[in-house]
Amino acid sequence: MVRFENVSKVYADGTKAVESLNLQVERGELVCLIGPSGCGKTTTLKMVNRLCEPTSGTIQVGGQDVMQVDPVQLRRGIGYVIQQIGLFPHMTIAQNIELVPKLLGWDTPKRASRVDELLPLVGLDPDTFRNRYPRELSGGQQQRVGVLRALAAEPNLILMDEPFGALDPITREALQDELKRLQGKLKKTILFVTHDMDEALRLADRIVVMKEGKPHQIATPDELLRNPKDEFVAQFVGRDRLTDAPELLTVSEVMIKRPVTVDPNHGLAEAIATMRQRRVNALLVTDVDDRLLGIVTAQEIERNRRSLLTVSDLMRSNPPVIHPGASVKEAFERMFLDHLEFLPVVDHQGVLKGLMTHTSLVDVLSHALWPDGGAVSSGGGAA
Q: Residues in the chain with pLDDT < 70?
């Protein structure tokens, strides 16, 4: 999607901001550029939409040399989000979001429809927010609108320059989650500049650690944590992160992939038979689309086994759940503090993806303590 070939940027005073950069960003990939101040990460980003033009080399977007495209047209086809948000204070939220589509000639009904389609994606009700002005929104809400403005014209590529850097930690984390959810749904190609390693590890498909205008190491978050190239990368990542400790693992890496499920319309005798056959003491109730509906336990079934009730009559709806991208540390804390025997793992649409059990956590801890194979084995357990 984006290709840098021997790209350099040298300023008039001789300063080399970027030197002989070669990088390929694949379609649908979120790549984070990170490094110390002055390493060239923001310059690299700005060269893509020609806010800063390369001194030499070639940058291609979708196979086309950006220097062969009118810069105004180029920028209208690329989403751009910055730390300062940049909303126009005299325009309503709707007018801010539809700015680029309007410049591209979209008619009024199409623009209005796009605004109403986008606002719910970030939890903003169109009837409530479309006619408000930026000053009437919180910083986090304004930043959400900034992201929507970048998405409005349906660009394939989005550039993000420390978009959440000015926000408080809680709001920043919430917007990171929002971006992860949107990216999982929309699969845009995103080039993301950050100075926050936690943010890069949380968001990126790949991380480009830059040093003196060049990529020093390009790796997935897991590769970077396990195999830093040298002392520079190790110090930049942070030695407290360079470990196989459980908190670095995500729920999706250790969960039971195929938990035992049951149809809500099954009778109790069928449920009991399934439990005996699979040696579990609870069943996850799912619909035909694998969405989690609830949980039914052996104890509940035993109390009602002589009745003609179905599983749906006994199941406990809205059980505690956890998302696949959450850390194992978070799962452990949830289960310990809430005295849970297990935690269903569901995606943002409520589709069941797996199950965390005490056995899952024991296996993780045993691997951390005995990585050469001294794992603790445990049978049985829930669902």
A: 85, 239-248, 360-383
Cα 67 to Cα 21, 120, 381, distances in angstroms:
16, 36, 61
- CA–CA–CA angle 92, 176, 342 (5° rounding): 130
Collapsing DSSP to helix, strand or coil, 215 comes out as strand
Structural contact between residues 20 and 215, judged by C-beta atoms closer than 8 angstroms: no
- At residue 220, what is the residue type? T
In order of 50, 69, 212, the CA distances from 10 in angstroms are 15, 22, 12
pTM: 0.62
Domains of the chain in sequence order: 2-243 (3.40.50.300), 251-369 (3.10.580.10)
Residue count of the chain, please give it. Answer: 383
Task: Compute the distance between CA of residue 190 and CA of residue 144 in angstroms, rounded to an integer.
Answer: 16
What is the per-residue pLDDT across 259-300, written as a single tens digit (0 to 9) for each? Answer: 889 999 888 888 888 888 788 888 999 998 899 999 998 888
Q: Which of 221, 193, 195, 216 is nearest to 206 (CA)?
A: 221
